[in-house]
Amino acid sequence: MSTSKRRRMLALGALALGAFGIGLTEFVVVGLLGPLGDDLDVSISTAGLLVTGYAASVAVGAPIMTAAGTRLPRKTMLVILMGLFIAGNVLAAKAPDYGVLMTGRVVSALCHGAFMGIGPVMAASLVAPDRRSRAIALMMTGLTLSNVVGVPFGTALGQQLGWRAAFWGIAVIGAVSLAAIIAFVPSRANDTGGSLRTELAVFRRPQVWQVLTITMLGWGAAYAAITFMEPILTRVSGFDTGAVPWLLILFGIGLTGGNLLGGRLADRALMPTMYGTITAATAALVVFAFAAPYAVPAAVMVFALGAAGFAMVPVFQTRVMDVAKEAPSLASSVNAAAFNVGIALSAWFGGLAIDGGHGLIAPVWIGVALGLAALAVAAASGAAERRAKAAADLDAPKQPLEKV
């Protein structure tokens, strides 16, 4: 391996490590809803608001934090964001009650959207244009590994030593991530997001808003089942709580494979991959709704949900960078926020459905509806792009025919 390639891989690894820490703090609560609810004397639906609150804070914080750091080098912004992330997790670990815990979640969430927006832009800049989606997928592998290794470990740690131990562990991982970013991510004086006016200008394009809507709906569909995975598996499928970490490992393996496959396919044909991954995720939700009462089929679908859901991630991220290519940082960060708006909406609607007496499977059907809506918007977006391209070809000056 050449020195330049080794440096690129180390830089991508550092970005992936940061994504690992961020993914861990977002997803670990999914496996701790029961213990958190019991310890803090709140219901499952109220504990689920720790997911909703985090996601909503990402949605609000992503554009604000990115816009505030537009003039700073991207590496400097990543360092600042990771420091904020560590502080939020320390506060969560020391929280005496539900309100302070939610505050810690909000603080750590402020860095999430901006980090996951700026990071993919930097990852894509490290490789050739025809390998951008794969580079983004490699960075996002940090998120998937946080499920394969981190969430089951955090769940087991929380069950054995209390949920606070999980947040202390995340804070330590955040410190290691910060050191890796400082050591390996290249510093470039001109590596900034440009002027705020330039970054904002891309939001005049309808295609940017269409991608944001697709991201919100598509990821909201996937997370409708993910948010309530632990109670579904224990109360509907009949698994013991001790089996949940192992099932989450299976889920995480699906995430990793789906993420890498989605990145590879997106580099070959972006729009067809978008249609295909949304369709696959929606179909997986339908099957899971019927399979959930049966242990073995439910376990199989845990894997399938992870694979189909995370195959969408590098696709959506590449797409928004394409339609905002002149100034991608803010658009990419807002897209990260759109992921979390989808999470917040699906978790909220899912909680309302459960509290309304519709059962733990009701959020899965909400996810199916969101997935169908995402597919409809994606189809409309693709059709509009084809019409615009056809119009541009008609308007292009005709080349004179050569005389024979």
UniProtKB/TrEMBL annotation:
Pfam families, alphabetized: MFS_1
Organism the protein comes from: Glycomyces algeriensis
SUPFAM superfamilies: MFS general substrate transporter
Entry protein name: MFS transporter
Organism placement in taxonomy: Bacteria, Bacillati, Actinomycetota, Actinomycetes, Glycomycetales
Domain spans labelled Major facilitator superfamily (MFS) profile: 11-386
Chain segments annotated as transmembrane: 43-65, 77-95, 107-128, 135-153, 165-187, 208-228, 243-262, 274-292, 298-316, 337-354, 360-380
PANTHER family, per the entry: CHLORAMPHENICOL EFFLUX PUMP RV0191, PURINE EFFLUX PUMP PBUE
Keyword tags: Cell membrane, Membrane, Transmembrane, Transmembrane helix
Membrane topology: Multi-pass membrane protein
GO CC terms: plasma membrane
Annotated compartments: Cell membrane
Gene Ontology molecular-function annotations: transmembrane transporter activity
